[in-house]
Specification:
Largest sheet of chain A: 6 strands, mixed
Number of helices of chain A: 9
Strand content of chain A: 15-25%
Number of strands of chain C: 2
CATH class of the largest domain in chain A: Alpha Beta
Radius of gyration of chain A: 19 Å
Chains: A alpha/beta (255), B mainly alpha (338), C mainly alpha (291)
Largest sheet of chain C: 2 strands, antiparallel
Strand content of chain C: under 5%
Structural class of chain C: mainly alpha
Order of helices and strands of chain A: EEEHEEHEHHHEHEHEEHH
Oligomer: heterotrimer
Number of domains of chain A: 2
CATH topology of the largest domain in chain A: Rossmann fold
Number of helices of chain C: 13
Number of strands of chain A: 10
Order of helices and strands of chain C: HHHHEEHHHHHHHHH
Strand order of the largest sheet of chain A: 6-7-8-3-9-10
Largest interface: A-B, 55 and 40 residues
Chain lengths: 255, 338, 291
């Protein structure tokens, strides 16, 4: 079995007396399509913050392709290939879609320190940015300001800016959150079209999305791993149904 | 492979990004007007030289505040550092050649900017603002304490400035040389700032200003960028201070005080920050108004200024240029509709 | 014996100055901690209150206590008016806009003071009970200074207790800690802020009056001491009454000592120490650490 792309060992995080994340052993393989589900307050976002280096752990380790990255900060982990999207968009709203992407590309390529040549002349950065936008079907609005776009498209830009970093591990925090159902297909299509070798972890509440994409599901409750398995296993698990599925997602219509 | 690249960059959406840095025809206007001023108002060239130094000072602040989003009320620290460098070099006749003096002024200001930036830019918001005030107050106190060298409150008068390029003399009565010299320095510095703004570095500063958290999330070394930006801004402010000292042949503690820092802040806001030419528009508007009103009705001037700032904060946060942009967009939209 | 008296004299002088600083700055600390609004015009409110107090005593022959009460009420009232009409519109605005707005307010207040009262410095006539010296056993010291220290201590104690024991205090603490959570618990944050802002400004007004004696009272007051108010608040920690109390006292004593022994620029150490302290602890001595 090849080494997992991303792994945690006994990862924990406390806030005073609150055990937000408890002793999590987690593996994410290359090419994985892994969903992380659980009720609100289960610690999912905290877990992702631990993975990306936004929060330091109280205990435990985070490993990237076997290398211990526990001590590394967010910026370093990004350079090593761990990137995430946020539940609420973090975009440069006053700038155009193309500018948003090109800032990320320039950062990745290291050209962001260049002070002498204008952005417009860096054909490599612009070409790569346009190319990325084309794969996500955003190229037609490349010149539009982000704040003028419908929310679904903005969410797609959030995904695009993260893909511009060419990550090996991609963490998506509720990618379809807040997107009107009429537009949600553009997000879902984009996630489906992600390069096969990227390891993807999606935090989701929508069980339809989970069933569509995830080959593996982990259920988190109160900071700990409650259950783990294929979507079928999880759906059939009576304890999971009791704790979570009965409240939301697939069961909500019949609930 | 090379066939694909031109197609991508010819993409319509990329057009504005690619051509943004190109020189527009109206960008030559400020310089034409400046030269026209030289010809038309030979008696006001002293005022003109002060105006040009103020433009440069505001431009330096725009880099830190308008582009990187560093809110500082202490930028006079660097202006004063540059002014005193030039002042002491000239007064003690260590070095009187003006251009190298300006470079030294930039260097001293840059060092102070770098050291204080490293230290201050770990903080944000009110704390950062207060620390910029503290740094400036600290420098002013230091200059006061060292009054044996700095001349204290009275300052260093009658600075000896050697002729520019050895040929053009600074005449205290006819400010011709001062004006053209200042204009030349401003032009060089402006070209530098303009290049910086349109470069990837400048774009990353805009990113930091627009969404700091996103910059962290794309792996940007944010603090280092801010420190470098602050250092460059300090160097330019130092040049402005040196220029001021040279054209006035005088330097004193007013170069370092809160009044000066608040003035340049107001000038930039008035013109419009984050827009290269805000410094120009703001300085002209402010100094013209001040020249005519402040001397006659100082209290009314202060009251009017206060009301103006409150209005700007509530209704016109992007200053004169911002209002101009809004009108242009509305006019443009109406034209498209008809 | 002489040394102790000397030392105590300096300490008391510094503490009384620090107390005034506290009374003025406590409002700024709480409102900044509560709402995150950068109110540089806080000193202008202190100046306004100072003028009300001093002028009502000098020209309208109010008694000391009555003047203080009037100063509190008048400053609180004007702050409520400004808060409801103008400040309110900038709560969601950028820091820059808030700084801009409050600087504009400072200028308006200064110009207003010059137009209405005049540019001269005003002096506070102390009531006879507070003049002269008081015998502390080992030392004779100015009655007024002792009075200030006691008033400051009692205010600090009172405000801290109010924070801990009253319902509104709990609401303020909750909102400072986590605003969204407080709102979702049904706390009317807007009304809370108006009340706190009014109280803080009123306190500042009293501070302006009490301190007029040795800080002076002229139209430049709003700007002259701005840096000190900001230092007291930042060093103490935003939102912490205890923090701004200790920071103000320390600052008062340091400033007094430095002005005494290093009159030519001793205050440079205050700025340097502030910078060093905030580097070491950016949240101030008692502030909340940002996660």
């Amino acid at each position: 079995m090849s080494e997992p792309r991303l792994e945690t060992q006994a990862l924990s995080r406390n806030f005073g007396a609150l055990k937000a994340v408890q002793n999590i052993d987690f593996k994410l393989e290359a090419g994985a399509r892994h969903a992380l589900i659980g009720p609100n307050g289960a610690g999912k976002t905290t877990f992702v913050n631990l993975l990306t280096g936004v929060l330091p752990p109280s205990q435990g380790r985070v490993l990237l392709a076997g290398r211990d990255i526990t001590g590394k900060g967010q910026a370093e982990r990004v350079k090593l290939g761990v990137a995430r999207t946020f539940q609420i968009n973090r975009l440069f709203r006053g700038l155009s879609v193309l500018e948003n992407i090109s800032i990320a590309v320039a950062e990745r390529k290291g050209t962001a320190w260049s002070m002498l040549y204008p952005v417009g002349r860096r054909a490599d950065v612009i070409a790569e940015s346009i190319g990325l936008l084309e794969t996500l079907k955003l190229a037609d609005i490349a010149g539009h300001r982000v704040s003028e776009l419908p929310y679904g498209r903005q969410r797609l830009v959030e995904l695009a800016i993260t893909l511009a970093l060419k990550p090996e591990v991609l963490l998506l925090d509720e990618p379809a959150a807040g997107v009107p159902s009429a537009e949600s297909h553009i997000i879902l299509d984009a996630i489906e079209a992600l390069p096969k070798d990227i390891a993807v972890l999606i935090i989701e509440h929508d069980m339809d999305v989970v069933f569509r994409f995830a080959k593996h599901v982990t259920v988190m409750v109160s900071g700990a791993v409650f259950a783990s398995g294929t979507p079928r296993d999880i759906e059939a698990n009576p304890q999971v149904r009791a704790v979570y599925l009965g409240q939301a997602g697939k069961g909500s219509g019949r609930g | 492979m090379s066939a694909a690249a031109p197609t991508a960059t010819e993409h319509p959406g990329a057009r504005s990004l690619i051509t943004r840095h190109r020189l527009r025809w109206w960008e030559t206007l400020p310089w034409i007007i400046a030269l026209g001023f030289y010809v038309a108002f030979p008696n006001y060239l002293g005022f003109g030289a002060e105006l040009l130094a103020m433009i440069l000072f505001a431009l330096s602040l725009d880099l830190a505040l308008g582009y990187a989003g560093i809110i500082t009320l202490g930028h006079a620290a660097f202006f004063g550092a540059g002014a005193y460098t030039v002042g002491m070099l000239a007064f003690y006749e260590i070095w009187t050649e003006p251009i190298i003096s300006l470079l030294l002024a930039a260097l001293v200001a840059a060092i102070i900017g770098f050291l204080s930036g490293l230290v201050l830019l770990r903080t944000r918001g009110l704390t950062l603002l207060m620390l910029t005030l503290c740094t400036m107050a600290l420098l002013q106190e230091a200059a006061n304490m060292a009054r044996a060298y700095t001349g204290g409150f009275d300052g260093l008068p009658d600075l000896a400035i050697a002729p520019v390029f050895g040929v053009f003399e600074f005449n205290p009565l006819y400010a011709n040389t001062q004006y053209l010299y200042s204009l030349g320095v401003l032009l060089v510095c402006f070209i530098f700032v303009r290049t910086l703004i349109y470069s990837p570095f400048g774009q990353s500063l805009t990113g930091i200003r627009e969404n700091l958290l996103r910059m962290h999330a794309i792996g940007s070394p944010v603090r280092l960028r801010l420190v470098i930006c602050y250092t460059i801004s300090a160097a330019l402010a130092g040049i402005a201070g040196g220029l001021w000292a040279q054209t006035n042949a005088y330097v004193n503690l007013s170069a370092l005080d809160l009044d000066r820092a608040a003035t340049v802040f107001i000038v930039l806001i008035l013109g419009g920050y984050g827009r290269l030419y805000g410094a120009f528009v703001g300085a002209v508007a402010y100094m013209a108004l001040e020249h005519f009103l402040a001397k006659i009705y100082p209290t009314a001037w202060q009251l009017g200024l206060g009301l103006l700032l409150v209005m700007i904060a509530l209704f016109a946060r992007n200053g004169i240029l911002g209002i101009g942009e809004a009108l242009w967009e509305r006019y443009g939209a109406r034209r498209k509709a008809t | 014996m002489d040394f102790i008296a000397n030392f105590a004299g300096i300490l008391l002088g510094g503490l009384s100055a620090g107390t005034v600083l506290f009374i003025v700055s406590v409002g700024l600390s709480v409102t900044m901690g509560l709402m995150g609004f950068v109110n540089l015009a806080h000193g202008a409110f202190a100046m306004f209150g100072g003028y009300v107090i001093v002028l009502s005593m000098n020209r309208a022959h109010f008694g000391f206590a009555a003047a203080l009460a009037l100063g509190f009420v008048a400053t609180a009232a004007i702050s409520v008016v400004l808060e409801r009409t103008l400040y309110r519109r900038l709560y969601r605005a950028s820091e820059l806009d808030q700084v801009l707005f409050t600087i504009g307010l400072i200028f308006i207040f200064i110009a207003g003071a010059v137009i209405v009262v005049g540019p001269e410095s005003q002096t506070l006539q102390l009531p006879t009970a507070l003049r002269g010296q008081i015998n502390l056993g080992f030392l004779q010291y100015r009655t007024y200074s002792i009075f200030l220290i006691v008033v400051g201590f009692l205010s600090g104690l009172g405000i801290s207790l109010a924070f801990e024991r009253t319902r509104i205090g709990a609401q303020i603490r909750a909102t400072v800690d986590n605003r969204r959570m407080a709102e979702s618990l049904g706390i009317n944050v807007d009304r809370l802020f108006t009340i706190t802002f009014a109280f803080g400004s009123g306190m500042a007004g009293i501070g302006g009056g009490l301190g007029a004696e040795f800080l002076g009272l002229d139209p430049q007051y709003a700007l002259k001491y701005l840096v000190y108010f900001l230092i007291a608040v930042s060093v103490g920690g935003l939102g912490s009454v205890m923090g701004v109390y200790y920071a103000s006292l320390i600052l008062g004593v340091l400033d007094f000592v430095l002005k005494l022994y290093l009159p030519k620029g001793g205050t440079i150490f205050i700025y340097a120490l502030t910078i060093l302290l905030l580097l070491w602890r950016p949240q101030g001595l008692f502030g909340k650490k940002e996660t």
